[in-house]
Design a protein that fits this description.
Layout (H helix, E strand, L loop, with lengths): L2 H8 L13 H8 L3 H9 L6 E3 L2 E3 L2 H15 L4 H9 L8 H41 L5
Antiparallel strand pairs: 1-2
Helix pairs in contact: 4-5
């Protein structure tokens, strides 16, 4: 993913006042994804572009949902978890529940990643110790 696409995916997604809709090419370029990925997210019910014949027309809502999907995938959420979080937007409560659920999920994910990091650091330490032991027995030329 390009730096510009990565920055766009991490930034707050505000509706763009310069357009009413987006083509598949527009979103692929903005977010650094393939048309196949967009069609997959559509098949999974995560985005729902309007269809005009065979042409997909993406809304501001689809664009915002795509940003959520990509951010969620990047930090390790499953598509089911992402779907749950973005579907909470439609409750009509000013996103209160969505924000609370997402914050809880993020805290849980941070804790899991920190535990993995500790495990990885311990494994690296053990491997380094093992390597030191092995290399100590190798004759020096």
């Amino acid at each position: 993913m390009s730096t510009a696409a990565l920055s766009a995916a991490y930034a707050a997604i505000e509706p763009r006042s310069d357009r009413d809709h987006y083509s598949i090419t527009d979103l692929c370029a903005e977010f650094g994804v393939t048309p196949r990925a967009l069609r997959f997210y559509e098949d999974e019910g995560l985005i729902a572009p309007e269809r005009r014949g065979t042409t997909r027309i993406y809304s501001h809502r689809d664009r915002a949902r795509l940003a959520w999907i990509l951010r969620g995938k990047r930090v390790g959420f499953s598509l089911g978890e992402i779907r749950e979080m973005i579907d909470l937007y439609d409750l009509g409560d000013g996103r209160r529940v969505q924000r609370a659920v997402t914050a809880d999920r993020c805290r849980d994910r941070i804790a899991a990643l920190e535990a993995q990091k500790r495990d990885i650091d311990a494994a690296i330490g053990e491997l380094n110790d093992f390597l030191d032991t092995i290399e100590a027995d190798i004759p020096k030329d």
